[in-house]
Design brief:
It catalyses: UDP-alpha-D-glucose = UDP-alpha-D-galactose. By secondary structure, this protein is an alpha/beta fold. It contains ten helices and 14 strands. The structure holds uridine-5'-diphosphate-4-deoxy-4-fluoro-alpha-D-galactose.
């Protein structure tokens, strides 16, 4: 059987495709290449260029391949952009996911793994690591658009022969330790990526968005998870559903947080390079502090993180940035 990866030419998707190939799976990718790159897709995978809401294309993909699972990454991912342009997030993340889920049900694809996000929680009531049962109060259209998809999946699983795993990602960073893929998106906004660009001199320093938050150093706290550990959680989810496991929602993070300033200091330390940091105002849609409780992923999915080390995450991100600079793919 084959696995269909949507958004397989993107950052996390391209790591997933490599992880599936490494595990001996047959892999099919659909990506419209709006932010991803064809060259980022492992050569073993079968590639279809197009949109996940293109029903005819999906029917063709299901007819041409024996797909028993979909891993759904395709979507828009930038919190402040979603605040500025909410309807495009409800279109790309919610409406198009609905079309994909409908096509999956029609084609009787039994398993589905969904890229959800910690943004569904908003800012939790306490500083404790957040559990899946915490209140769901997204603070951005991005978080809301993903939560709506989780709700569609829940209801679809109740009505049809269909199981899903929604993985709520915390802050994904780093790159394939073997250097085969990484975060290549142009105009990236994610903290470690932006800092890596500053190290390489691709940008003149960077901004810290807000130093007046109620945290020890005033900057926001996040749980940074290495992208390969995240890809591995999807493999475990797939394995579990294929073995008959039911639908489940699981956090993907390590359970410890770093502030923005801590991350930037670590980047400078690992790189051995200093770069200018400007203190700017708060960025719209940012939650103050959010850290995962990963117990469900560890117990139910049998997930074992291997790269729970901020310096390693940063090192792999820097190595990839360096690789991009050398191949002139900035
Ligand atoms: N930040 C800066 N300067 C930058 C970039 C980011 O100070 O140049 C700060 C942000 O304001 C925020 C923190 O770094 O406080 C992390 O920001 P990112 O943009 O790296 O990530 P987000 O936390 O906004 O969002 C990410 C994912 C979401 C996910 C969320 C969960 O994009 O999918 O983490 O916490 F939901």
């Amino acid at each position: 059987m084959a696995v269909l990866v949507t958004g397989g030419a993107g950052y996390i998707g391209s790591h997933m495709v490599w992880a599936l190939c490494d595990a001996g799976e047959e892999v099919v990718v659909i990506d419209r290449l709006s932010t991803g790159f064809r060259w980022a897709v492992a050569p073993e995978a079968r590639f279809y260029e197009g949109d996940i809401a293109d029903r005819e294309l999906l029917q063709r993909i299901f007819a041409e391949n024996r797909i028993d699972a979909i891993i759904h990454f395709a979507g828009s991912i930038i919190v402040p952009e979603s605040v500025a342009d909410p309807l495009s997030y409800y279109e790309n993340n919610t409406a198009k996911s609905r079309a994909l889920i409908a096509a999956a049900v029609e084609a009787k694809v039994p398993h589905f793994v969904f890229s959800s996000t910690a943004a569904v929680y908003g800012t939790p009531d306490t500083a404790d690591p957040v559990e899946e049962t915490a209140p769901l109060r997204p603070e951005s259209p991005y978080g809301a658009s993903k939560l709506m998809t989780e709700i569609m999946l829940r209801d679809t699983a109740l009505a049809h022969d269909f199981t899903y795993t929604a993985l709520r990602y915390f802050n994904v960073a780093g790159a394939d330790p073997r250097g085969r893929t990484g975060q290549s998106t142009k105009g990236a906004t994610h903290l470690i990526k932006v800092a890596a660009e500053a190290v390489l001199g691709k940008r003149q320093g960077m901004d810290v968005f807000g130093t007046d938050y109620p945290t020890p150093d005033g900057t926001c706290i996040r749980d940074y998870i290495h992208v390969s550990d995240l890809a591995n959680a999807h493999l475990k989810a797939l394995e579990r559903m294929r073995a008959g496991g039911g639908s489940i929602v699981a956090n993907c993070g390590y359970g410890r947080g770093f502030s923005v300033l801590e991350v930037l200091n670590r980047v400078k330390e690992v790189a051995g390079v200093d770069f200018p940091v400007r203190i700017s105002g708060r960025r719209p849609g940012d939650a103050v502090s959010i850290v995962a409780n990963p117990a469900v992923a560890m117990q139910e999915l049998n997930w074992q993180p291997k790269h729970d080390d901020l310096a390693f995450i940063v090192r792999t991100a820097l190595d990839w940035e360096d690789h991009l600079a050398r191949r002139n793919q900035i």
